[in-house]
């Protein structure tokens, strides 16, 4: 198991989204010696993709993932607009030299209770995006989200389900394993083994706070919650995962309110002590 | 598939916990023609077990379940106090003539991040309780809780996991399937089939609200959320489940604030139209 030194860490820009724009995130990573970055598309578009790609390259950062493609159920049926947007996301990931494009697949279509139907739309959308992504060599990483987001964000909710989809779709598609979403799963270690190095594209960390006050924006800093993060990292690294440890914390009442350089210092420290 | 008439429904007392004590719940069920009741132990103790049993019998109600045994991790290791309390819960369920004793198994032990350890404690606790429950003929129903409660309420979080435990422990133990906890699970129908009639002891309904504002106390009335309840009921009834449809809604800002007779009217109506 590796020691999580700053150069093995990546900053997901959502972690300091209230404090820093993308340019500041890039500078911050460079200043603190953090090895990589994972931008969200909104901040990427704000800065401009080419400019961002150049700054990231100049700063010597890796890109552990681009957040996010997916949202296939946004318009009910799978529309050309949704597919086109996913292709653009693939292109952006390529331009950034990203390790993968992370997919948050979307929840139930508006007004629908048909989760099987949503899952069918998602699978079709992934297949179509994958066709394009393969042609440009960009790995697609499905991020299974915690079941509490099944209705409104992602109807792919376990690593088993993710890998079942990957098995159907073939090469070039795998998983982004975020400890927040999977820590509770009694078969997570077994499914990580099933994934193997060839399906493990990203590893995200934060923590589950015992008294979670908001389902979306109350995630904890590593070490402040109940997730046995080292056990999960050990699992993915035992399969040969050698990508960055990406820190993605949504925290409206705590970390988003702090000095971003303090956030960087703490996450680096917790990389060493709590991951 | 049955028509859900009031006589096939059961009122879990938590649904009107802010408005009615157990005696009022019993009277309310009788007045509205609801066929059964599922008391929580706190309100049961408040009324007195023998008195409650007599009133329930006199009112002609069935008892679809006693909520709840379990909480095996409450004291870290499995203590005699915890086992004794579970045995008392079994006795109470017997005295009420309950269809089963519902188990909310407990989450992580205080200060622990060891979910595998918690699960081992739970399995031991279930085994010991089951030994006793078998001797008095009371079925034990494990209620897998939604993964968002894995840390603080129950580390048994899927029907698959529940049935794996049942397979290890043998006869007399099964599942309480609550649509709120399992609706998101991509293999729920498959696992319901695996359970079969002999492992399906209870069926609970409420709904998942699209904008859930509180992880514990913002459940919806059947029909107000996104769960395809009829599909799940069809699944359990296809296996031969013929117990009551138990309504269990925790709703601090809505249903707990309404006139309880109105709550009864609405849940009866929704039994017919949304279950």
TrEMBL record, chains A, B:
Domain of life: Bacteria
Keyword Isomerase in record: yes
GO molecular function: isomerase activity
This protein's UniProt keywords: Isomerase
SUPFAM superfamilies: Xylose isomerase-like
Xylose isomerase-like TIM barrel domain mapped to chain residues: 29-259
Pfam families assigned to the protein according to its UniProt record, in alphabetical order: AP_endonuc_2
InterPro entries in alphabetical order: IolE/XylAMocC-like, Xyl_isomerase-like_sf, Xyl_isomerase-like_TIM-brl
Name of the protein this chain belongs to: Sugar phosphate isomerase/epimerase
């Amino acid at each position: 198991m590796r020691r999580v030194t700053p150069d093995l860490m990546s900053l997901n820009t959502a972690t300091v989204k209230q404090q820093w724009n993308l340019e500041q995130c890039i500078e911050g990573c460079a200043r603190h010696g953090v090895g990589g970055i994972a931008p969200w598309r909104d901040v990427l578009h704000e800065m401009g993709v080419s400019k961002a790609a150049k700054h990231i390259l100049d700063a010597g950062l890796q890109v552990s993932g681009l957040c996010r493609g997916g949202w296939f159920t946004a318009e009910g049926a799978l529309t050309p607009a949704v597919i086109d947007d996913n292709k653009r996301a693939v292109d952006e990931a390529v331009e950034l030299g990203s390790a993968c494009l992370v997919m948050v697949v979307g929840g139930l279509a508006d007004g629908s209770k048909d989760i099987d139907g949503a899952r069918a739309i998602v699978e079709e959308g992934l297949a179509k995006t994958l066709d394009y992504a393969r042609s440009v060599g960009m790995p697609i990483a499905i991020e299974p989200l915690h079941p509490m987001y099944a209705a409104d964000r992602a109807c792919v909710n376990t690593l088993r389900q993710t890998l079942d989809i990957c098995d159907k779709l073939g090469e070039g598609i795998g998983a982004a394993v975020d400890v927040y979403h999977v820590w509770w799963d009694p078969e997570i270690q077994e499914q990580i083994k099933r994934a193997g190095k060839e399906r493990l594209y990203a590893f995200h960390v934060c923590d589950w706070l015992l008294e979670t006050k908001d389902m979306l924006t109350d995630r904890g800093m590593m070490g402040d919650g109940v997730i046995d993060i080292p056990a999960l990292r050990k699992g993915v690294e035992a399969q040969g995962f050698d990508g960055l440890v990406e820190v993605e914390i949504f925290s409206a009442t705590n970390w988003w309110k702090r000095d971003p350089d303090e956030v960087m210092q703490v996450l680096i420290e917790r990389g060493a002590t709590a991951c």
